[in-house]
Amino acid sequence: MNQQPVVGIVGGGVSGLATAYYLRQRLPTARIHLWEASSRLGGALYTQWIDGYCVEGGADMFITNVPWAVELCRRLDVELVGTNPEHRGAFVVHRGRVVPIPEGFAVMMPTRLWPLLTTPLLSWRGKLRLLAEPLVPPRWDRRDESLADFAVRRMGREAFEHLVQPLVAGIYAADARRLSMQAALGRFVQMERRYGSLGAAWWHSRTGPSRSRANGSGSGARYGLFVAPRQGMEQLVHRLAEQLPQDAIHRQSPVAEVKRCGTGWRVLYQNGNQATPTAAEVDALVLAVPAHRAAGLLRYHDAELAGLLERIPYGSAAVVCFAVRLEQLPEPPRGFGFVVPEVEQRQVLAVSFSSVKFPHRAPPGGLLVRVFIGGDRLQPLLELSDERLQQIAWDEVSQLCGWSAKPLWHRVFRWPRAMAQYHVGHLELVRQIRHRLHAQPRLALVGNAYDGVGVPFCIRGAQQAAAQLAQELAAAPK
Ligand SMILES: Cc1cc2nc3c(=O)[nH]c(=O)nc-3n(C[C@H](O)[C@H](O)[C@H](O)COP(=O)(O)OP(=O)(O)OC[C@H]3O[C@@H](n4cnc5c(N)ncnc54)[C@H](O)[C@@H]3O)c2cc1C
Question: Per-residue pLDDT tens for 372-385?
Answer without folding.
Answer: 998 888 889 999 99
